[in-house]
Amino acid sequence: MNRKAVLPGSVETRGSVLSVRRRRYDSALLIGTSYGRFAGYLRGNYLPREGSGVYLRGALFDFKRAKKNGGFDEERYWHSRGAVKKIVLFEIREISPPKRIARWRAALAELIDERLAPLTSAYMAAFTVGRRDDAAIEELHKRAGTSHLLAVSGLHVWIIAGLILSLLPLRGMLRFAAASASIWLYLLVSGLPVGGVRSALMIQIMLLSAVVGRPSSAFNNVSAASALLLLANPWSFYALGWRLSVAGALFVSASVPLFRSSLCRAVCVPVLLWFVTAPFIASAFGEAPLAGLALNAALVPAFGVIFPLVLILSIPPLFELPGAWIASAASESILEALQNFIDAGASLFSGAALFNPALFSASVVIFSAACALRCSSGLQRALLLSVFFLLFMLYSAAM
To answer: Does residue 104 lie in a domain region?
Structure first.
């Protein structure tokens, strides 16, 4: 992590656009070159397509560090995505069209835009290719504290895995290979989001355990998957998505076995999860909407039905099958009802929690207690584990 990239002050080279993120006033690009990955910003109408080959000229600079604790740290943000330098672009132009998986992502995004109704198109673009361009929908979920439903995360990957495993009439290695291929194909199409990759690694460990006949623990799987991600790129720890994903998954996998009643589990776990993740959100964005405290208890289990249903209903219009208009109308009605429910909840619970010692203390106590109880029944060991998780939360929230 402390190794510094020794590069010239300016470069003229070729590369490929690894990701494009549209923002309010400009667009952020991650570009892979023979020198390493560069992060750059573009304003104006011209924007190279994700996956395209580009010619570029520019000056290289170090990333800026945060001016104050808790502020945006450009260095940590881009290093967590593998970038080594910031490039101020003098010139950039496409020299070849998108290739391989980027070509398929672009084709799917185009089909979604052309053939799906407005609401279905916006949600399907978020669920599949990871594109969240609809500002109204983005703002609604942000106000309600349910943005995690739009971002491809562990929830989406587990739903996809459940669908594949329930529909495939296979056993043994064939089942393992088919499920693994389906999950990783979905993640490649969605752009390999960190929460999705962590969940996919968890599922791979679980499936492999089943194949070799060994017991599997969700809590241990989260830990192993998170460690593998950090070994691949230690800077991942500084990405808010990684910390939210890991802390949330550790807490859920630790707390679910503690509740015997299914109803109690369905209500209590999402509510407690809000308290665990609220300090991360409030520290990064200034506040954590209270609406998420009430809405997620209902929406997380409901999303397990809505997500696959919208996916299935989108197939007829995407491929112009008979009865496509019926499927399209049904999908729009479901998503309109979802939007109305979220809007009503966000209006009813309109307050927000700021980052404060009481909120952080509640997060640490709930998280540490659940993890310690999951790991050990002995009081001495539970206390030691609590200290470990306390340090993890203290360091995580300080980023």
So the answer is: no
Q: Do residues 60 and 170 both lie within one domain?
A: no
Within 10 angstroms of residue 109's Cβ, the number of other Cβ atoms is 20
Neighbours of 261 (CB within 10 A): 9
The Cα angle at residue 356 between residues 351 and 358, in degrees rounded to 5? 95
The total of other beta-carbon atoms located within 10 Å of residue 34's CB is: 8
Q: Is residue 312 part of a domain?
A: yes
Q: How confident is the model at residue 4 (pLDDT cuts 50, 70, 90)?
A: confident
Encode 197-226: b = buried (16+ Cβ within 10 Å), e = exposed: bbbbbbbbbebeeeeeeeeeebbbbbbebb
pLDDT in tens, 261-320: 777 887 788 888 888 888 888 887 788 888 888 888 788 888 888 988 999 999 999 998
159 shares a domain with 77? no
Q: What is the per-residue pLDDT across 187-240, written as a single tens digit (0 to 9) for each?
A: 888 888 877 888 888 888 888 887 777 777 888 888 888 888 888 888 888 888
The residue among 98, 114, 144 that closes a domain is 98
157 shares its domain with 276: yes
Q: Which domain holds residue 385?
A: 135-397
Task: Provide the domain count of the chain.
Answer: 2
Pair 90, 165 in one domain: no
Question: Stretch 140-153: mean pLDDT, rounded?
Answer: 86
| CA gap 365, 360 in Å, rounded | 9
Q: Please report whether residue 284 resides in a domain.
A: yes
8 Å CB contact between 191 and 151: no
| Chain Cα centroid distance, residue 197 | 9
**Residue 112: CB atoms within 10 Å:** 23
Q: Is residue 3 part of a domain?
A: no
